[in-house]
Automatic annotation (TrEMBL):
Signal peptide segment: none
SUPFAM superfamilies, alphabetized: alpha/beta knot
Role summary: Specifically methylates the pseudouridine at position 1915 (m3Psi1915) in 23S rRNA.
Pfam families for this protein: SPOUT_MTase
Organism listed in the record: Niallia endozanthoxylica
Catalytic activity reported: pseudouridine(1915) in 23S rRNA + S-adenosyl-L-methionine = N(3)-methylpseudouridine(1915) in 23S rRNA + S-adenosyl-L-homocysteine + H(+)
A GO cellular-component term linked to this record: cytoplasm
EC number, as in UniProt: 2.1.1.177
Subcellular location per the Swiss-Prot or TrEMBL entry: Cytoplasm
Stated name of the protein: Ribosomal RNA large subunit methyltransferase H
Length: 159
């Protein structure tokens, strides 16, 4: 299975990089996992609605360029479906069973994902009604993907 985490923005925080590297190492025995970064659009702090859409659309074009036609796309979106760890494990297991060997989780920038990215997504996933920094979401997502593989293999992992 090939899993991509495609995210807007460059990760700068060393503590997040260390955590991400740890989960990438743990996941290497289960799947080929890569993290792909696309550059974020520079924008002032205060934006009009039209300017926000423009930024999301530019970032969205970069994200879409990283997706192949056969990739199953899961967009992380606050209005997506919330799943338990077991339900995410079941989703990944079913995708593998039915020949979807390429999965991409897409994480937008600070303004979220463009409508085009959301329309391309095969499903939308939400981790919470709370808002998390998009850089932190990479780490949380990788931990949950690792947990999903452990669940699917009936291997122990802390609850």
């Amino acid at each position: 299975m090939n899993i991509s985490i495609i995210s807007v923005g460059k990760l700068k925080e060393k503590y997040l990089k260390a955590g991400i590297d740890e989960y990438l190492k743990r996941l290497s025995s289960y799947a080929k996992v890569e993290v792909i970064e696309v550059t974020d659009e520079k924008a002032p702090e205060v934006l009009s609605v039209a300017e926000m859409e423009l930024v999301k659309n530019k970032e969205g074009e970069k994200l879409l360029a990283k997706l192949s036609q056969e990739t199953y796309v899961i967009a992380l979106a606050i209005d997506g479906k919330m799943k338990s760890s077991e339900e995410l494990a079941d989703t990944i297991d079913k995708l593998a069973t039915y020949g979807k060997s390429k999965i991409a989780f897409v994480i937008g920038g600070s303004l979220g994902l463009s409508n085009e990215v959301l329309q391309r997504a095969d499903e939308k996933l939400s981790f919470s009604k709370m808002t998390f920094p998009h850089q932190l979401m990479r780490l949380i997502l990788l931990e949950q993907v690792y947990r999903a593989f452990r669940i699917n293999r009936n291997e122990p992992y802390h609850k």
